[in-house]
Amino acid sequence: MEMKVVLLSGVLALLMVSSGFLIIANETASEDDGEIVAQDENQNEPVNNVPSLLIASQFTHPWDGMNSTISGFVTDEQSSSCYVIVMLLDSTSLAQVGETFNVTPDQSGAWSMATPFSNPGTWIVQAQAYDQEGQSSDSTMSQIAIVAPDESDVLVSFLWAQPLENSSIGTLQGLMLHMFPSTCSVEYHPLGQSPARLIVGDTNQTSGQFTLQVNTSYHNTVGDLIADCGMFSSSSSSIRLNLPVPPEPEGDEDSDGVLDESDECDNTPLGEPVYASGCSDSETDTDMDGVMNDKDQCPNTPTSQSVDANGCADSQKDTDNDGINNVADICPNTPAGE
To answer: Under a CB-based contact definition with an 8 Å cutoff, are residues 214 and 187 in contact?
Structure first.
């Protein structure tokens, strides 16, 4: 009997212990489940990270006449809801240049903008990203540079057209070869003459062709042809010229058709026919009797004989018309017809 009681007591104790263990385990499990639920609830709360701004430290653009651009990325839980504040600063004074820009990224967080700069130079870009909760990234500083093109020296070719006959105006025509022909100009500087006499050429701003008119009777035909070009850097070419001109035509002061150099009578009355000597009958005394041919009725007076106003000597006269000249006629008054 006692043995049975002992056995029953042991079984009961075992059951009680077993029941207590199960309660403790269940309570522990319940507490763990509560922690998991709390963690899940925390994970479901929205995360609000500070946005990050990714941007290059240097933007370099070769000059192309277009406005330069800058770009970057914003990383955030909702990048497209962020915005980027951009200020452009002078690289020397750090003073702000122009307006402040507000740029919105796309869905991927990428953003870009055109700057107002198109000519060569350097500037500072200050940028900072903000999210919709007002949190901001660190402010970044980058440099933007537009690099001027390498402008080669201007090359000049030309052709000289001499003045035409009876003109003193010659023409210089040529071509200036340069990257920016619209910036080119050309001048002719006569050597040793006043700057007031320099000649500015007419230039085709598209092709670089040029034309200059040179008055060879007014301008020294020895001088310098100077071409200047350059958009961002100056390029100059100077060529010393000695422009050939035709010899001065020989003059004909009395306009008788015989050049002055050969004209023995340089004041021939206008319109009178002349001999090869350039002398007319009014200027010529062929028989050298002192009476010019245009008035000499006896053009072949023997040398040294005296003549009258008509250029006739006695040996050339027959006063009584008897066929015997006065020198040989011993009867100078023979009646007519005898």
So the answer is: no
Tell me the residue ranges of DSSP E strands in 104-252: 110-114, 121-130, 140-147, 155-161, 169-177, 185-190, 199-200, 202-203, 209-215, 222-229, 235-242
For 193-214, what is the mean pLDDT?
96
Cα 78 from Cα 55, distance rounded (Å): 18
CA dihedral 268, 274, 279, 284 (to 10 degrees): -110
The answer to whether the CB of 152 falls within 8 A of the CB of 66 is no
Predicted local confidence at residue 43, as pLDDT: 58
Interatomic CA distance for residues 82 and 129, integer angstroms? 7
Task: Tell me the pTM.
Answer: 0.57
Q: Is the pLDDT of residue 45 over 90?
A: no
Q: Any residues with CB less than 8 A from the CB of 257 and at least 6 apart, and which?
A: 274
CATH classification (class only), 52-147 = mainly beta
Q: In the 8-state DSSP scheme, what is residue 170?
A: E
Query: What pLDDT digit, counting tens, does each position of 292-323 carry?
Result: 888 888 888 888 888 888 878 877 777 777 77
Provide the CA 204 distance to its chain's centre, in angstroms. Answer: 9
Per CATH, 52-147 and 155-242 having the same topology is answered yes
**Cβ pair 227, 237 in contact under 8 A:** yes
Residues in CB range of 320: below 8 A, 6 or more apart:
329, 331, 332, 333, 334, 335, 336
Cα 322 to Cα 145: distance, rounded to the nearest angstrom: 122
Q: For the chain, what are the domain ranges?
A: 52-147, 155-242
Phi first, then psi, for residue 40 (nearest 5°) are: -65, -40
Phi and psi dihedrals of 107, rounded to 5?
A: -60, -30
Q: What is the pLDDT of residues 104-151, one digit of tens each?
A: 999 999 999 999 999 999 999 999 999 999 999 999 999 999 999 999
CATH of segment(s) 155-242: 2.60.40.10
pLDDT (mean) for 81-90: 96
Q: Report the pLDDT value the prediction gives residue 35, as an integer from 0 to 100.
A: 54
Backbone torsions φ then ψ of 75, nearest 5 degrees: -110, 125
